[in-house]
Design goal:
This protein is of the alpha+beta class. The protein has eight helices and 14 strands. 22% of the residues are buried.
Length: 271
């Protein structure tokens, strides 16, 4: 797979991207807002001064992004911010029923992850899979449906109560290689994992087993999630994967038309 890996496009490192996404924007220098004049800004500044965990900072960052977007929409529609007072007063019921209720219903269709606790999340396999690159399209009908439970236990990762393992074909072991299209045939009867699970793991890195980073020989593993196969404009087929490199989990993809070796296991549920 060395030629294949050399031909891959740029990677996307999970935790590095998370660091960028959750970093709250710094305040610009200039006149400070007076206490009470801007309650939202005051509240955010208080939260910034308090020490919080990563999840708290994510929430604050997203809140600021939504708030900025709403303000920009009001500007485009030439509506003053006085509408905010109306929304929490006379317009409150209308806002909840006509805006928030349908908005939440639409969100539920594409919601990807729900956090249960520190070691367990729920992942929506019906949410649209993220594409490995621009122009890619889904080329198969995934087996995985609905919400699944992903849990980190002391002995590994579990999906809906079954252990998630890294599977190699007999033709991948040692110095043997197998063409990706042939490996796909071998995996047809196996319970391969959906790439939405991979993306969820990238957002919750503590759930990823330590032994997924490297094999027994210390070689980096490229763990592939075969439940969704993608096609490019030249009819080449791909599956998404991730791997550990330089202190980060990075998302990648593999082309089926090349050789796959011992470093390219499939993530599957044990039977």
């Amino acid at each position: 797979m060395s030629q294949q890996k050399a031909a891959y496009l740029a990677t996307f490192c999970c935790d590095k991207a998370d660091a960028l996404r959750i970093r709250c924007p710094r305040e610009k220098t200039g006149r400070r807002s007076q206490p009470g004049k801007n309650k939202i800004a005051d509240a955010v500044n208080i939260l910034r001064r308090r020490k919080g965990n990563v999840e708290n900072w994510k929430i604050i960052g997203r809140f600021l992004a939504v708030l900025n977007h709403i303000v920009e929409v009001f500007k485009k529609l030439e509506v003053s911010l006085d509408i905010l007072e109306w929304l929490v007063g006379e317009g409150k019921e209308f806002f909840e029923k006509s805006v928030l209720t349908p908005l939440v219903a639409e969100f539920r269709k594409t919601e990807r992850v729900r956090v249960v606790n520190e070691t367990t999340i729920m992942v929506n396999l019906d949410a649209p899979p993220r594409l490995p690159f621009e122009g890619a399209v889904v080329a198969n009908i995934p087996k995985g449906k609905g919400w699944v439970e992903v849990e980190r236990r002391t002995d590994g990762l579990y999906v809906d109560g079954k252990n998630a393992i890294l599977h190699l074909s007999d033709n991948q072991k040692g110095k043997l290689v197998i063409v990706g299209t042939e490996f796909r045939k071998e995996l047809e009867k196996m319970d391969v994992l959906h790439p939405n699970i991979m993306d969820a793991l990238c957002d919750h890195l503590r759930l990823i087993p330590e032994d997924w980073k490297k094999n027994e020989d210390g070689e980096i593993l490229y763990i592939h999630f075969w439940d969704v196969v993608f096609r490019d404009s030249d009819d080449n087929l791909f599956v998404r994967c991730f791997y550990w490199d330089d202190g980060s989990w990075c998302r990648y993809y593999g082309r089926l038309g090349v050789d796959w070796d011992r470093l390219d296991p499939a993530a599957v549920r044990a039977s």
